[in-house]
Amino acid sequence: MVRATALGFVRYRDAVQWPSVSDYVPPGEGLQMLLPDGPCVLGIGTFQNGYRGVGANWRSSPGCDRLTLSPAPGSGDPSSGGDGPPAQSAAGTAAACTGRRSSAGPTAP
Predict the structure, then answer these.
(1) Residue 52 included in any domain
(2) Residue 51: domain span
(3) Domain assignment of residue 51, yes or no
(4) Residues in the chain, pLDDT under 70
(5) At 108, phi and psi to the nearest 5?
(6) Which of left, alpha, beta for 51 (phi over 0: left; psi -120 to 50: alpha)?
(7) Does 47 fall in a domain?
(8) Based on the structure, what is the number of domains in the chain?
(9) CB within 8 Å of 77: residues ≥ 6 apart
(10) Residue spans of beta strands (DSSP E) within 7-85
């Protein structure tokens, strides 16, 4: 195992935005990988939105001393993975769950 400081990383207190709407993050979830992004890094992982884990990116601040979720959870940006349960955050699934019947009539089993 290589220490982060040996790779040029510097520790900053409270430098990574928490990957969940609650105080719990399942093991193996959250910030999982750091990739070079110019002079800084890009974080890749999952954000726990209260219903499930959704893919998330953490962007570096201009000074490379803070990683924040981008897009921010709850921003309304569809690429943030949605903040509702699966049936509400995916447009196609929401339409399928409205209870409307097809006008084509019954189908054979």
Answers:
(1) yes
(2) 30-74
(3) yes
(4) 1, 75-109
(5) -70, 145
(6) alpha
(7) yes
(8) 1
(9) 71
(10) 31-37, 40-48, 53-60, 67-69
Q: What is the pLDDT of residue 45?
A: 94
CB of 33 closer than 8 Å to CB of 43: yes
Which distant-in-sequence residues (6+ apart) come within 8 Å of 70 by Cβ? 57, 58, 59
pTM here is 0.64
Residue type (1 letter), 23: D
What is the Cα 19 distance to its own chain's centre?
Answer: 7
DSSP secondary structure letter of residue 38: T
Give me 105's structure tokens.
């009539």
Task: Count the Cβ atoms, other than its own, within 10 Å of residue 43.
Answer: 23
In a domain, 17, yes or no: no
Q: Is the peptide bond before 71 cis (omega within 30 degrees of 0)?
A: yes
